[in-house]
Amino acid sequence: MELKLHEFDLPLKYKFGISRETRTVQKTVIAEVIQDGISGYGEAVANHKYYGFTVEKMFADLNGLQEDLKTRNLLEITPDALWSIYHPKLKANPFAQCALDMALWDLYGKLKGKKTWELWGLDASKRPVTDYTIGIDDIEVMKKKLLEFKDWPVFKIKLGTDHDMEIMQELRKVTEATLRIDANCAWTAEQTIEFSKTLKELDVEFIEQPLPAEDWEGMKKVYEKSVLPVIADESCVHEEDVDRCHGNFHGVNIKVVKCGGLTPALRMIRRARELEMKVMVGCMTESTVGISGIAQLMPLLDYVDADGPALLAKDIATGVTIDKGVVSYSDVPGNGVVLSGELN
Ligand SMILES: [Mg+2]
Predict the structure, then answer these.
(1) I want to staple 141 with a disulfide (CB 3.0 to 4.6 A). Which of 47, 137, 181, 246 is the partner?
(2) Distance 74 CA to ligand 1 centre (A)
């Protein structure tokens, strides 16, 4: 196989605010693996500020595998076997490993003429709708965004201001859709327990990552006293974190870039189910390349946050399509990705 790496600056439709930053552009890396003239694509967004993975670091780590990849034939070895072989080299850079692993699954499916979810033996007839994420902004702007996407059945509202309950009360006035919230580590245990009562009255579905990632003592209290379910995100990064979250969260939000790709995400989902936890898979503002990979996991999930392409002003590929929260697979096998090669 041959490996080519591409870099894009994905322009966001609106500036996107969460508790710790606001962005207008998302830098991203696309890995392309090629065999027999067929290309498979995977994606990992750069996240310098919180997780520390830059485009340059991903390029450097993936380029270190060029020689070995040339000796591999994807009709003789599976993507999950290659994941294990490359893991020692990419352990410190799960974002890079995700881009490669996702590209290998896309190519593997294309070579076999089957969709990736089919290769995993899944039944794709049942899958959750994706939420649409509303970033932190002035309340009027948040309301406007919600009304612009008013046909979507589920919204994820980013919180972490000094007036979070006011935001939710105002948003609830303009929609009857399902609302879930994500505080991105901004609250204390006491605030979360108190806020959960107000949020329950506002018919909120669950609270994602209220406390800082390592505040396990606080999470224990929240787990016991919150009147709404609590889902881990920043506290659930690597495979072993699923066990740590058990008894501290009601569920986990798995991000493929953080754990190192679709291969470990499948294992994490399986483990969370064994522990009888709720399972969500989330995105990091990926383009259609990354979302098409993530979408292969949907038949296994309770919740999905796969709205990346809907947040972009321009996309770089075709693959899954999203219509009012319903994610549909393309007719192309693998993850179904066709890269257009430029922003369009
Ligand atoms: Mg989150």
Answers:
(1) 137
(2) 34
The DSSP H or E segment spanning 289 is: helix 288-295
How far apart (Å, rounded) are the C-alpha atoms in residues 299 and 320? 14
Buried b (16+ CB within 10 A) or exposed e, 177-208: bbbbbbbbbbbbbebbbebbeebeeeebbbbb
Bridge partners of 52, per DSSP, are none
Ligand 1 centroid, distance to 283 Cα (angstroms): 9
Q: Which helix (H) or strand (E) holds 162?
A: none
Ion ligand 1 neighbours (CB, 5 A) are 182, 208, 233
Taking a C-beta distance cutoff of 8 angstroms, is the pair 77, 1 a contact? no
pLDDT digit string (tens) for 263-319?
999 999 999 999 999 999 999 999 999 999 999 999 999 999 999 898 899 999 999
The tens digit of pLDDT for each residue in 135-163 reads 999 999 999 999 999 999 999 999 999 99
Helix (H/G/I), strand (E/B), else coil: 24 = strand
Out of 3.60.20.30, 3.20.20.70, 3.50.50.60, 3.30.390.10, select the CATH number for domain 2-118. Answer: 3.30.390.10
